[in-house]
Write a structure and sequence with these properties.
Blueprint: E1 23-24, H1 37-50, H2 52-55, E2 56-58, H3 63-80, E3 85-88, E4 91-94, H4 109-116, E5 121-127, E6 130-137, H5 146-149, H6 154-157, H7 164-178, E7 185-186
Helix pairs in contact: 3-4
Amino acid sequence: MNIALPRYTPYASGQHKLSVGLQPADPHHWFEPDHQWAEQMANKAVLLRFRHDAVVAALPGSGPAQEELLGRMWDHLPLAFPGRYQLEPEGMRLRDLHPGGINDNALSAIDRAGRLVQEDVSLLELRKGAYVLTAASLAAPSGWHLHEKLGQPLLGIHAPVPGYEAELGHRVQRIFEGLRSDQVLWRGDFFFFT
């Protein structure tokens, strides 16, 4: 059996330090379809069909941010991955397996965005001075449930992370306050079950 090694291995050195983990991303490749595309998209399709409310959720008022995200994805994906995505007059067309519904205007924009890529898609918006999780399509969370975190600020979302508030909370808030709309950052999420 040929097993692909993980591309991102922050603990490969054997050392661990609690860190923000945000890094600049190539603005031309802020999604990374990989060898698990078909399997993960098939899993996402099953979850969307049978557990939709556990996978997709949004707060009232998040519609404009959802639409902005979906629009940026529609602009980006056909340029970055022309062999997989094609924008046509009737909407987006994927040449590979996907969960369907990507052109269904009856679905929320965050739902449609999540159906385009194998990654989870989450929106954080500034509300009352804090960045709050306002919408997400989350098929593969790391030990948490979307409805527990929806509407929570960053500190609330990360409350179970030992040391987050004391060591990282204020630094993360400052990073978010300094973000520009043209910046693309990525963060890997590592979770180990024992």
